[in-house]
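Justification of resources, computational component.

The compute hours requested in this renewal are based largely on the per-chain cost of generating structure records like the one below. Each record pairs the submitted sequence with a full structure-token output. That output is archived, and it is also reused by downstream analysis tasks.
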Amino acid sequence: MATSSSYSTAPTHFRRREVLGHAQSKKISGLIGFGSRRISSSRLLLSRPGNFLRDRRIFRVQNVSSESKQKLRDPVTQSDEGSSSDLGSFTPDASSIASSIKYHAEFTPLFSPERFELPKAFYATAQSVRDSLLINWNATYDLFEKMNMKQAYYLSMEFLQGRALLNAVGNLDLMGAYGEALKKLGHDLENVASQEPDAALGNGGLGRLASCFLDSLATLNYPAWGYGLRYKYGLFKQRITKDGQEEVAEDWLEMGNPWEIVRNDVSYPVKFYGKVVTGSDGKRRWIGGEDIKAVAYDVPIPGYRTKTTINLRLWSTKVPSEDFDLHAFNSGEHSKACEAQTNAEKICYILYPGDESVEGKILRLKQQYTLCSASLQDIVARFERRSEGHVKWDEFPEKVAVQMNDTHPTLCIPELMRILIDLKGMSWKEAWNITQRTVAYTNHTVLPEALEKWSYELMEKLLPRHVEIIEMIDEELVSEIVSKCDMSDPDMLVKKLNAMRILENFDLPPAVTDLLPKPEESPADDLKEELDSDEVLPSNEENEDEPKDTRKNEVKLEPPPVPPKMVRMANLCVVGGHAVNGVAEIHSEIVKNDVFNDFYELWPEKFQNKTNGVTPRRWIRFCNPDLSSIITKWIGTEDWVLRTELLAELRKFADNEDLQLEWRTAKRSNKIKVASFIKERTGYSVSADAMFDIQVKRIHEYKRQLLNILGIVYRYKKMKEMSAEERKAKYVPRVCIFGGKAFATYVQAKRIVKFITDVGATINHDPDIGDLLKVIFVPDYNVSVAELLIPASELSQHISTAGMEASGTSNMKFAMNGCILIGTLDGANVEIREEVGDENFFLFGAYAHEIADLRKERAEGKFVPDERFEEIKEFVRSGAFGSYNYDELIGSLEGNEGFGRADYFLVGKDFPSYIECQEKVDEAYRDQKRWTRMSILNTAGSYKFSSDRTIHEYAKDIWDIKPVELP
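The structure output for this chain reads:
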């Protein structure tokens, strides 16, 4: 860690003259804050020290808002705002960058002035970079506004961005200049960048995909931006203790976020509760209830080597100051006084708050509605402003595309309907036509619990107007189904209606039931009539003379429980949108043939596939510079960063010994970095000469970290049964690395984390095993950790139960970095294997089409577990890994039926295939020439999985938007 506390030879405290030159300092003081504008220090970035006003140009932070803007004249140049198009041709050098950093250290400080240590250096550097982004950011949206082009809006509950500094500097192509500037100031760019906390705005692949998409949208010059929520505490920060996973609040905002700009003039009212009334004009209106404000925070998203810089708008929630109850506070009722503010602010406290309680469910629904309502109000305001007083609502879908990333933003559909009908005065037919043409839906899961359902009662209470609109959409859906179904098969019709309706467990409308034949009375109905009569069943003939208690002989039939009324959000997405896409070829087929088969039969034209992708900038170019240099050298161009199809050129050199040597050297260099990181984070020492075997992703039973760790236990047990010589001959040394968070209330997932750490504690301290096997759980896995681990990976595990992983994106990142995958034929694994070649992918396990029959076999008690699997379960139960009782964890793999049992995710079924496949991995790794060839071919075959390709497909097939590049 650098400890320099001064700017090279400069004093520790800077005066204004040292940054600007003595003569200019007073003049700039007068200009800063001119009128309603703020002077950006971009001028300093564009001039050498002492020459600040030589070019006589001043730049400002222009508000990227939804309000109309008055044209201002520049106080120095007397030119109109937006006339700084010549700035893009200026490339700042290290000296001007150093001046900019020094300026921010003094004039936009977040730290005391005495020292210039790493945290302060980071914030000053980030603010300097942001100045460069602001110029392009403002120019980008000036262009979008003037051209009034169709724009895409990507709504997601998660954006897992990672650190922004190196990504921004790299995209601006200023890595060398910033590195040199910081050296002048006594620091190293990499050490400065390490001070940045990961933005706690997401958790897993859903959020990382959204961030990759924004990078590609900017890089490809598409008019688009993202909408999300500004979570104060994120999901949680994960700590690993002797008890397993512990959760504490994220602190990413405690020192401020240098990338965001609050837009206090961009806020929208959001309402909950209240009631719906009919006005004198016959229109329905939502009144009363709980009111909050959503305020915009904007984050610039730069493209790679392009001026285009798009926007991620995050909403934060609050109430006006007048909602603070001053009287209650002065009366000593302090909690009551702050109640309104607390209720508003907590909406954006936590990503995915626990929803075991009613209060938790309400909070989650509030989050989802806040995202949808604020975003759509903003989108509508932008459309109206761009229309310049000539609003044509039928053109709304020609100017706006709204993409719902999973089911969380489903309320976009009834919210857009509410705005159009209640606020803009449209008819139902007009509003429904506009909504369906505007909105599209990406499905990310086949898991039933993730295809969200909300309690009708809760939603009716919290969002009464939206429930009315959803009921009307459901009514229209029922009418369409009836009109297109064969009425000669009423049972099939009822089955379809029950599966497809948005409202679950609701009676069919009378208009439908009148069309169905009346059911004949059954014997059960006759029995019920008899039981309901006054007759008493005869009693036992014994003791006839005794008084008879007839109540003993009454047969009481308990009524079946009434299933709760629910709102199916995924069904609403399919009905309300014009396009539905899966995120891998196999997943899209499951969506069409299983999850939404009835809808697919009704509207086949709606369904598409859009295989996920990841940005090659962050996931090769920036996180793996050694490998990037090798790729560029052998391909002969760096254009692969934008045209990943060029990666396929590596296939020609896969057997070249010089390339293979360079390839292995780069991999080992990355492994050494990870070994150092592991020592720092966990205290364990690992060998960089061992195979690095990595599984990093959200902890979930379907992702089967349990299968992985049980395979490691099997490996360990067999090692212990051998002599030292036999062990060395049989097994390749491995470092098995896990990372990922288990949701705070997901008990079984947390048991898996505990089990992994217990196994690691035993194996890592076993002197018989030494460096032949290590098990590491990396705490608080995030994007920055991934950027370290993925370049160092040699084997990566993507071993979900077939048919349950929609796509995956980490599998793509690993393949891009020359890592070989072991996995099932699931999600994007299918397409990766096709591209890299069957011989360069370690395949095991059951196929997706077999899963249903295998579960049925289990339920019928016909499954016979492999004796090796039974052996390992007993070994775990023996206490080999400590005193913790793992009966519940192992018990989930046993039995034939029941919640949490019967091995629903088929760990036992796939275990034999898995350990046999691992033996093939060892065999391949011993031949380093073969392994390196496989590694090269994995990178070469990953060309298809760039998010640039995915975004082009969305733009063409779903959004109908065109790229536009700044001049």
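Confidence is low (pLDDT under 50) at residues 1-88, 534-546. The longest strand covers residues 290-302.
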